[in-house]
Each structure stands twice: as structure tokens, then as C-alpha cells.
TrEMBL record:
CDD domains registered for this protein in UniProt: Sialidase_non-viral (cd15482)
Annotated signal peptide: none
Record Gene3D superfamilies: YVTN repeat-like/Quinoprotein amine dehydrogenase (2.130.10.10)
Protein name: Glycosyl hydrolase
GO BP term, example: xyloglucan metabolic process
InterPro entries hit by this protein: BNR_rpt, WD40/YVTN_repeat-like_dom_sf, Xyloglucanase_GH74
Length: 359
């Protein structure tokens, strides 16, 4: 058995939980109390795990903190780790995504608001703007979604460092094959029903909520849209709807099983502004055939009516298990692929981000 760590970013602090030899998770005292933590990452590539936390200082703005001793101590770069160059005229509003590169040992990607991508070459200590995406002609026409103009997904290719995909709300999905120098919109087949008839399949402007990929099959992507769940078999070249048999194809997260590239998980919500679980029942849905069919998973989840949602980064699927956190501060985990669930934590603040790893 292995020890595991769970990192839960909330509206008021970061909570770490540890599990020894497959035992229950024990939640530690809060880090960064009263400070929002919209993004977390657990980097296990080096000699010691590094924790990264995108935090919101409030009046002092966003930043990135790092720990090389599993949260015992935290460091911050001498100057702001992520900052827009003066010539952009932009100000960092939030760090939405932190993701260690699977193909470059010291590289960490950061997706931020307003709609930009940053790259670190020192394991997340400092970052520089990816100018190629910032200068893309579409960017001036991107409009903020309900959560802001957020670049919330970064998908670096597992073996080719030149290939990377990103998603921004509400710009859509974009991909680069030259390390970020140039980018193309890749949204063919994704319907935007809020647009007039005859123009509902635009080149860009789709309200993408999250995109997921398995490293064993990087050409296949899964996408949760504001109005649908989609699959691409050519790294975004074209997309096919796979959400028709779900009780609702509206939701925020989509994650891929760590060992089975065709197994994915979503958390459907009612598709109106209510944004609560369908029928107010807490249920995860799993597909084992890349979206061909779906199975409801609810054993161990609350049976009483539920009125809270799961945000785009508040679900993860890792060798340590499948985990998700809710907006009313409950965290659930499964170690049997979602067949059964157990409560990991409750009475936390609003859960924004969840990540887990084996140590």
C-alpha cells in the first residue's frame, strides 16, 4: 500500500488530508486561513513532492505558494510569481489552473484570468507569459463566462512538449503544435445554442467548462460544455456529442480514470440557473466506453435532497482514488472506481479545487 495526500482548495483556505497504507484520510488544520485557494497541484516528479497553491490575497491580489515538505512550510518568490508584462496593460485576477508538465521535468503551466497562459521552468516558482496565445487575434473577442474570463484547462501532451491544448471560458478550446508560438481554435462540432439559428457552430466562442485527457491516449479528449458533453478523437480537430443519455448534459467537471482511458466521470447539474444536482440527488455518472453509455454511481452519497454543486476543478481521478468536493464543504472519495463513496471531510468552506496523489 501507499500513503496518499489530498489537497482541497476552498473559499477560505487550503486543507490537506493524509491517508496511510490505504486507511482513512485525516484532515489537517487549515493553511492560508480566510484566503481563497482556487487552484492546487501536487507535483510528484522530483525527489520530493512539491505542493503548489494558487491563492487570493484579497487586497494584495493573487499569488502562487509552494511547499516542498507537504505543507509544513510555504515559500513565495521574491517578486510576484505570475505577473503580466507592462505592455499588456492587464492585471492578474485569479490563478485558475496549475499543472506540472508530463514531458518537461521542471515545467509547470498556469492558466489565469483574464484569459492567459503562463509557463514556469523552475517547478512553479516563477512564470512568464505565453505571448503567442496572448497575441492571438481571437482574444480581443473572448467574453467572460459566469466565472470570468478564465483559462481553466491546460492539457500538455504527455510525450511531445510542442503540443498543448487549453480551454478558456468563453473562448473555447485552442491547440498549439509549436510550443505555444501559434494557436488555432479547435471547436468544430461543439454547438452553442445561445446563438441564432444558422450560426450555432462558430469557430470560437463556445462556453467550455472543462476538458480532460488520459496520457495513454492523448489524441482523445473529453469536454464538458455549458450545453453538452463531447469527445474528440483527434486532439480537438472535431467533436462528437456523448451526453444525450445523461439526465442532464450541463455540468462543470469531467475527469478520466487514471488507468482506463475510456472511463470518464461527470457530475450532471440541472441546466437552468438553479445549478443543483438533477432531481436534487447527489450522483456521479461514469462511462466505461468513452461516452457510449452511462452508469449512475451513488452508493455512499447523501440520500437526502442536495442543493449544492461541484465546480470545474473540484473533482479529480488519480491512482489515490476518485474525489470530489461540493459548494457546501463536503468532500467524498472512492477507491473502487466510483462504485462506493465515503465522506472524507465535511463543514469545510466552499470547495473550489481538489487534487490527490500517491506518495
Amino acid at each position: 500500500m501507499h500513503d496518499a495526500i489530498l489537497a482541497v482548495g476552498t473559499r477560505k483556505g487550503l486543507f490537506l488530508a493524509r491517508s496511510a497504507d490505504g486507511g482513512p484520510f485525516e484532515v489537517e488544520p487549515v493553511h492560508f486561513s480566510t484566503i481563497g485557494v482556487p487552484s492546487v497541484a501536487i507535483d510528484t516528479r522530483g525527489p520530493a513532492p512539491r505542493l503548489l497553491a494558487g491563492i487570493e490575497y484579497g487586497h494584495f491580489g493573487p499569488s502562487v505558494m509552494r511547499s516542498d515538505d507537504l505543507g509544513a512550510t510555504w515559500q513565495e518568490a521574491d517578486k510576484p510569481p505570475i505577473a503580466f508584462p507592462e505592455h499588456t496593460g492587464a492585471t492578474l485576477e485569479r490563478v485558475w489552473q496549475l499543472l506540472p508538465s508530463p514531458s518537461e521535468p521542471d515545467v509547470v503551466w498556469a492558466g489565469v484570468e483574464p484569459g492567459a497562459l503562463f509557463r514556469s521552468e523552475d517547478r512553479g516558482a516563477t512564470f512568464s507569459l505565453v505571448e503567442g496565445l496572448w497575441n492571438h487575434p481571437h482574444r480581443a473577442q473572448w467574453h467572460p463566462g459566469g466565472g470570468g474570463l478564465c483559462l481553466h484547462t491546460v492539457l500538455p501532451h504527455p510525450t511531445d512538449p510542442k503540443t498543448v491544448g487549453i480551454a478558456v471560458s468563453t473562448g473555447g478550446f485552442y491547440r498549439s503544435t509549436d510550443g505555444g508560438t501559434s494557436w488555432e481554435a479547435a471547436n468544430q462540432g461543439i454547438r452553442a445554442p445561445f446563438l441564432p439559428e444558422g450560426s450555432q457552430y462558430p469557430e470560437f466562442g463556445q462556453c467550455v467548462h472543462k476538458v480532460a485527457m488520459h496520457p495513454a491516449r492523448p489524441e482523445r479528449l473529453f469536454l464538458q460544455h455549458h450545453f453538452g458533453v463531447y469527445r474528440s478523437d483527434d486532439f480537438g480537430g472535431s467533436w462528437t456529442s456523448i451526453g444525450d443519455s445523461l439526465p442532464s448534459d450541463f455540468g462543470f467537471p469531467v475527469v478520466v480514470h487514471p488507468e482506463r482511458p475510456d472511463t470518464i466521470y461527470v457530475f450532471p447539474l440541472q441546466a437552468d440557473m438553479d445549478r443543483t444536482p438533477v432531481d436534487h440527488r447527489c450522483r456521479v455518472f461514469r462511462s466505461d466506453d468513452a461516452g457510449g453509455s452511462w452508469q449512475e454511481l451513488s452508493t455512499g452519497l447523501p440520500e437526502d435532497p442536495v442543493h449544492s454543486s461541484v465546480l470545474r476543478d473540484a473533482m479529480c481521478a488519480t491512482p489515490a482514488g476518485i474525489f470530489f468536493g461540493t459548494r457546501d464543504g463536503e468532500v467524498y472519495g472512492s477507491r473502487d472506481d466510483g462504485e462506493t463513496w465515503s465522506l472524507v471531510a465535511r463543514h469545510l468552506p466552499d470547495v473550489l479545487s481538489v487534487r490527490a496523489a500517491l506518495l
